[in-house]
Amino acid sequence: MGLDNAATKPHERLAAALDADMTAVNELIRERMASEHAPRIPEVSAHLVDAGGKRLRPMLTLASAKMCGYEGPFHIHLAATVEFIHTATLLHDDVVDESGQRRGRPTANLLWDNKSSVLVGDYLFARSFQLMVETGNLRVLDILSNASATIAEGEVLQLTAASDLGTDEEIYLKVVRGKTAALFSAAMEVGGVIAGQSDDVVKALFAYGDALGISFQIVDDLLDYRGNTQATGKNVGDDFREHKLTLPVIKAVAKADTTERDFWHRTIAKGDQRDGDLEEALRLMDSHGTLDATRADAVAWADKAKASLSVIEQSELKDMLLDLADYVVARVR
Amino acid sequence: MGLDNAATKPHERLAAALDADMTAVNELIRERMASEHAPRIPEVSAHLVDAGGKRLRPMLTLASAKMCGYEGPFHIHLAATVEFIHTATLLHDDVVDESGQRRGRPTANLLWDNKSSVLVGDYLFARSFQLMVETGNLRVLDILSNASATIAEGEVLQLTAASDLGTDEEIYLKVVRGKTAALFSAAMEVGGVIAGQSDDVVKALFAYGDALGISFQIVDDLLDYRGNTQATGKNVGDDFREHKLTLPVIKAVAKADTTERDFWHRTIAKGDQRDGDLEEALRLMDSHGTLDATRADAVAWADKAKASLSVIEQSELKDMLLDLADYVVARVR
Question: Do A40 and B160 touch (CB under 8 A)?
Fold first, then answer.
């Protein structure tokens, strides 16, 4: 990634515009992930926090609050809250998925153990909760507690749905709303609530985050089949090898003839895979055009995200959020 | 357990006195552990919730609120909150401890898998959080979010402290406050807060819960060496075999000569155990009187719990709470 090119990416323009606030968020995160008694906690948290995710979710909160004219101090707390919830979820996800890599580094469950990942995740979740209580805003607490429940419910649903050929697009959407969109939408929504915006504006912010999150996750799932390993750090076909049913496969299963259905049943439902299966899966998806159809869905959700912001008056931050929606789908062909 | 004898136990008298409220709590628990989308959630939760724990923690909240003259509806929410936090902790504990049994039944991680236990625990934790937000009381939210952080911190501390011979009584107390007393004290405290009691009363309720929780955990740790397997459902020496450093051993290590220190180093710190080691451990603890000394500590904490309630005016519920403190230590000789 050259610096010139990097400067044009919307999430980097957002980061530049929100630089002072993001510095405050990072300081608050560092302060709150400390533990006087249990040094294992900051070790494990720092491993993940320092790995340099894009901090997309806290940026959404900051951008939303600023775009809505908020001038108080609590958008910093809420942004840190959102990042803590996200980090806690990642720690638990890596245990559940038995992952060995995250953001190009060994996962915490590999470097320490599953126990540490479970318990430090719990700690960060509790800390997120303390941070939001400090805002003293009950509506914000309501939104974030509901989002937390939706996230956990989506993760449990994914456990049973991911290898079940009966999983249709409706169930997929529920899982995606849980695992990704619920935190995106809550991150946007609380920015508007803390700024005292009208219900219409708050609803628009929610809708933007919801649609952006869905688009983001669909693209992630598509990248697993169409990605450039060097750019994404993921190997093509990881989801297939872990026999995870994502949108491109769900669309292919819906169009499958009997032979094709047997193929999906063997490779995904039963998880019995052989040499050449990934290539066959790609060929089947291609023959039904499901990769293109999946990308079209992602574009439609990104368009929906942009349209949601129509009630919000023009500003530099709003333009960046509009560009961000385009960028999310531009990551994949 | 005969019914005659059962009727005299203070937690059963509390259950009888709080019967209508406990029914409401159980209904709320059942309602909130449901999930429209993920049937795995109520399956796993019900396995644990139906196993029939004593519901001690929610009873403390109900007793505290009632004793303080509370007449609103939110003590039910808070009691359910406390039980959800407890249940979530148990689900994660069983994963961390790799346990196979809990309350005389196979654990959820064994019946389903670790994934389900981690994620359903997260779901219950999020649900607990929704429940307390519904009370609309920010002070209650502050208390319970702080308790959640203390619990998680204590669990992480225990990970590293449990097999470290350098763990002294001060560190043990921190672990015990985290794993047990933090929820007991918060359960009592929120009952007083919701009833609008003065700071003095709220402090007294906190102090009772804190000391009761510490006494309760010390007795649990002592029962591991002095318990009656039939009565407790635990095998004598489980903690020793899992090389967990608890108070009786910490006291024995503090009095150990060089040979004895080598013994503890091999069996606990290194976890290298042979036939006859448990008997030798019991002999060493006996020779230094550390089992008696441990019981004396439990009695002292129970006395402290009772003394804490002196600022509260006499009532039937108060008498039951006083008796409960005595009963906690009466469980072990």
Answer: yes
User: Per residue in A43-73, pLDDT tens?
Assistant: 887 777 776 678 999 999 999 999 999 999 9
B327: closest CA of chain A, how far (Å):
32
Q: What is the ipTM of this complex?
A: 0.91
Interface test with A, best of B117, B133, B174 (most A CBs within 10 A): B133
Q: Distance of alpha carbon B270 from its chain centroid, rounded?
A: 28
Averaged pLDDT in 10-residue chunks for chain B of 333 residues:
55 93 94 84 78 86 98 97 94 80 72 84 95 96 96 90 90 94 98 98 98 97 83 77 93 97 96 95 96 97 98 96 96 84
Neighbours of A327 (CB within 10 A): 17
B3-330 folds as Farnesyl Diphosphate Synthase (1.10.600)
SS3 content of chain A, % helix, strand, coil (to 5): 75, 0, 25
Chain A nearest C-alpha distance from B310 (Å): 32
Strand partners, B105: B102
> Euclidean distance between the first and final Cα of chain B, in Å?
18
Q: How many residues does chain A have?
A: 333
Q: Where are the domains of chain B?
A: 3-330
**Pairwise CB contact (< 8 Å): A129 & B127:** no
Q: How far apart are CA A194 and CA A202, in angstroms?
A: 10
SS3 A212: helix
Smallest CA–CA separation between B89 and chain A, in Å? Answer: 9
Residue numbers in A near B127 (CB within 8 A): 149
Q: How many Cβ pairs closer than 8 A exist between chain A and B?
A: 138
Of A288, A256, A286, A283, nearest in space to A269 by CA: A256
Cβ-based contacts of B39 with chain A (< 8 Å)? 160
B115 interfacial to chain A (CB closer than 8 Å):
yes
Specify whether domain A7-330 bears CATH 3.40.50.300: no
